[in-house]
Specification:
Elements (H helix, E strand, L loop, with lengths): L1 H14 L1 H29 L11 E10 L2 E5 L2 E2 L2 H8 L3 E9 L4 E5 L2 E5 L2 E4 L3 H4 L4 E3 L11 E5 H8 L8 E4 L3 E9 L12 E4 H8 L1 H4 L5 E9 L6 H14 L10 E5 L3 H4 L12 H28 L1 H13 L7 H10 L1
Parallel strand pairs: 7-12, 9-11
Antiparallel strand pairs: 1-2, 1-13, 1-14, 3-13, 4-7, 4-13, 5-6, 5-10, 8-11, 9-12, 10-11
Length: 340
């Protein structure tokens, strides 16, 4: 019976080539575009979710109150992170990341390049984030001063096919950086990317001790890992306690520290000095609306084209009834009657 159904369907397709092509092709295009949009939106909503502790990672944000305006800063002062870790037992780890807003000169022998994606990070960075480390011990690769990690792409850029681990790069014409590990490519759905990662102790030397201790110099991205079972929101009401302890009383009201969930940064954050340009969640919802509209139009188009052939189908069904076919097996009986 099913073989006969298939034969009849094939005959209809051949008989009505243009109509069949338009209806099937239109439906396929609608489904294909809808699937692509859904995959794109899914990618948008899963930014930074590849980190195993993503639901416990927060970025420290400073709502700076200057005059009548409030400026939400993605950057914070260097000493804020360590002070938070020392003050609040709910905090498991703190990692500071610094990216130069300009370029950084990196040299190896006669090769000199100005790199746009070099960051400095605390040695505990791999305790918080799951960046792909292909070579090296995550507990020690950034433990020592003057150490650096490279992605495979950058390693080939400077060293070709040679083993880069143990080689020395020169930063800013004077700081020797020893390659201690190799990184894989950072996933595309990450709110920031880098090609080189150096230890934060070197950044302290570059910045200078005065800047490193300055509570009013916002130059660092601070990420906080909350203990398992804790939530970031109860900590927010207490964060400004560290400001009152470390900043002169007349300046303390200018600060307002809050925590921002890591997974919300890409779609819900547009702060001053973001590491990279983010998107907006409203665009994702617009795309989903467009996807629903496309699949509905494809289905309506398919049904309209199918209905246009309804009169022919009624004639066919009538003939099958005349030949005595049952309702559930018209195709099978009509062929049997014809053969007899």
């Amino acid at each position: 019976m099913f073989q006969n159904y298939f034969k009849v369907a094939l005959r209809n397709l051949v008989k009505h080539k243009v109509q069949s092509f338009l209806s099937v092709f239109g439906l396929m295009i609608g489904i294909g575009v809808t699937v692509l949009i859904i995959l794109f939106v899914q990618d948008e909503f899963t930014y930074d979710a590849y980190h195993g502790k993503a639901n416990r990672i927060y970025r420290l944000v400073n709502n700076w109150k200057g005059g009548d305006e409030v400026t939400p800063w993605a950057r914070t002062a260097t000493p804020m992170g360590p002070a938070i870790k020392e003050t609040f037992p709910q905090v498991q780890q703190v990692v500071r990341i610094r990216k130069n807003p300009r370029t950084d000169l990196i040299e190896f022998e006669d090769k000199k390049f100005y790199e746009k994606r070099l960051v400095f990070a605390d040695q505990e960075v791999f305790e918080v984030f799951d960046f792909p480390l292909l070579r090296g011990n995550p507990e020690t690769v950034l433990k020592d001063k003057y150490t650096i990690l490279l992605t495979e792409k950058i390693a080939r850029k400077y060293f070709g096919n040679e083993d880069p681990v143990g080689k020395i790069l020169t930063y800013d014409n004077k700081h020797p950086l020893k390659v201690t590990g190799i990184l894989g490519e950072i996933p595309a759905n990450s709110h920031f990317h880098f090609d080189l990662m150096a230890d934060f102790e070197t950044a302290k030397e570059v910045l200078g001790e005065q800047q490193y201790k300055n509570w009013f110099w916002f130059d660092i991205q601070t990420y906080i890992l909350i203990n398992n079972g804790e939530k970031g929101s109860p900590l927010e009401g207490k964060l400004n306690d560290i400001i009152e302890k470390n900043v002169p009383e007349k300046y303390a009201p200018l600060f307002d520290l809050v925590l921002q969930p890591l997974t919300s940064i890409h779609l819900e954050s547009n702060l001053k000095d973001e590491l990279e340009k983010n998107s907006d969640v409203k665009y994702s919802y617009i795309m989903l609306t467009v996807a629903v509209f496309i699949i509905l139009m494809a289905c309506i188009n398919f049904m309209n084209l199918t209905t246009a052939n309804y009169s022919t189908r009624l004639t066919e069904i009538g003939l099958r009834k005349v030949f005595g076919a049952q309702k559930a097996s018209w195709s099978d009986n009509i062929l049997q009657n014809r053969s007899s």
